[in-house]
Specification:
By secondary structure, this protein is α/β, with parallel strands linked by helices. The chain is 43% helix and 16% strand. The longest helix has 23 residues. The chain binds 5,10-Methenyltetrahydrofolate (GUE). Catalyzes the oxidation of 5,10-methylenetetrahydrofolate to 5,10-methenyltetrahydrofolate and then the hydrolysis of 5,10-methenyltetrahydrofolate to 10-formyltetrahydrofolate. Homodimer.
Length: 304
């Protein structure tokens, strides 16, 4: 197999990939959303409200919660935090979701995943009213996405898609390889890229030679939670690489650092464009959560 000449020359002339600045893109998007929130409030006297439910203490979720609360206020929305103990029962959690479903001040509900053992994430996600399911993970919104119908799209895949369209424009005909088949990222990402006209390959835990598949991707989206899994030689020269992974590792000096699923130093010499960790997909996830919350508020008050 020979690479297309354009991709080869790009990789030779440009040994260091262009960084995709998700942090800057997200900051812009958040500003736009803040303006729209003000206009929405002027017209309807309603402030979009987001409820975040965190059960127990998962470290990844805590990073998310910290940034999310800040960004929610920056966008002029209200944020309602519900921190529940690890020992919370399924019945207690479902009762809280029931109250949030009824609460007119709440337009979006997000239950942080993963949930502690003993709580059923499927039952909990499906208990959220579809109009308030700003994570888009319940069966109604997931089903709409699978069928290509309008609905609420999960925040992380939506953020990845926004970055890809901003970088590449029309995605039609590109081969997108997705590594990871989770309901949170891989599967909805595959459905979104298929809807954009990509040829989509999904590699997962049982895939025999993921590296060989990855090397075919004009677009490579990596969402496995396995830090450093994707090495430089997994990447097609000139490809656009979106690293969704986010793992906090301990350094010898006692500090910690966030790393992605892609071995960045290697990938940067092969890829055409690449998202860094931190500062790539993470901030986009939060901006898209705000986007989805405003959209949910609009629908609920009949403005959309
Ligand atoms: N129902 C649900 N939906 C989620 O989308 C969800 C979840 N549960 N549980 C936890 C994971 C994790 N997650 C992150 C989002 C943004 C950053 C983020 O902002 N990252 C910054 C980190 C900056 C820093 O702290 O240094 C960055 O990558 O630049 C991190 C992690 C969403 N998650």
């Amino acid at each position: 197999m020979t690479e297309p000449a354009s991709a080869e020359t790009a990789s030779v002339r440009n040994p260091s990939a262009r960084l995709i600045d998700g942090k800057a893109f997200a900051a812009n998007l958040t500003q736009t959303i803040a303006q729209e929130v003000r206009a929405f409030h002027d017209r309807y006297q309603v402030t979009p409200g987001l409820a975040v439910v965190l059960v127990g203490n998962d470290p990844a979720s805590e990073v998310y919660v910290r940034n999310k609360a800040l960004q929610t206020h920056r966008a002029g929305m209200r944020s309602f935090m519900h921190m529940l103990p690890e020992t919370t029962s399924q019945g207690e959690l479902l009762a809280l979701i029931g109250r949030l479903n009824q609460d007119p001040e709440i337009h979006g509900i997000l239950v942080q995943l993963p949930l502690p053992a003993g709580l059923d994430p499927v039952a909990v996600t499906n208990a959220i009213h579809p109009d308030k399911d700003v994570d888009g993970l319940g069966e109604v919104n997931a089903g709409r996405l699978a069928l290509g119908q309008p609905g609420i799209v999960p925040c992380t895949p939506l953020g990845c898609l926004m970055l890809l369209k901003a970088e590449l424009g029309d995605l039609r005909g590109l081969h997108a390889v997705i590594i990871g088949a989770s309901n949170l990222v891989g599967r909805p990402m595959a459905r979104l890229l298929l809807a954009e006209g990509c040829t989509v390959t999904v590699a997962h835990i049982d895939t025999r030679d993921p590296a060989a598949l990855a090397r075919q991707g004009d677009i490579l989206v990596v969402a496995t939670g396995c830090n450093g899994l994707v090495r430089g030689d997994w990447i097609k020269p000139g490809a656009t690489v979106i690293d969704v992974g986010i793992t906090r590792i301990s350094l010898p000096n006692g500090k910690t650092r966030l790393v992605g699923d892609v071995a960045f130093d290697e990938a940067v010499t092969r890829a055409g464009r690449i998202t860094p960790v931190p500062g790539g997909v993470g901030p986009m996830t939060i901006a898209c959560l705000l986007n989805n919350t405003l959209a949910a508020a609009r629908r609920i008050v009949g403005a959309a």
